[in-house]
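Task 17 of the worksheet. Students: predict the tertiary structure of the chain below and write it out as structure tokens. Keep your answer in the requested format; marks are given for formatting as well as content.
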Amino acid sequence: MNWKNALLAGFWSFAVGTLVGMYAFIQPPFNILCSVGALLLVIFFFRKFQTRGIRIAFVLLSIVYFILFIFMMSFYLYTIQMQP
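Model answer:
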């Protein structure tokens, strides 16, 4: 894996993790768009990169970005609710 592939995997996994995280916070008609967008990005990534190592890195980074997004949004919504 070279630097270009690593940066692309990081970018695409950030996009997928963010879209999956947004799925939990958006109302029902629009959350389907987030899940379909994430699915299309995953299909595009898996077609472009055939090696097993970069695919594993992509999935792991997507999970990490998803957890970070959920944590940050929960913290943000909590602080908004606590203001007088």
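Marker's comment: The mean pLDDT is 94. The two ends are 51 Å apart (CA to CA).
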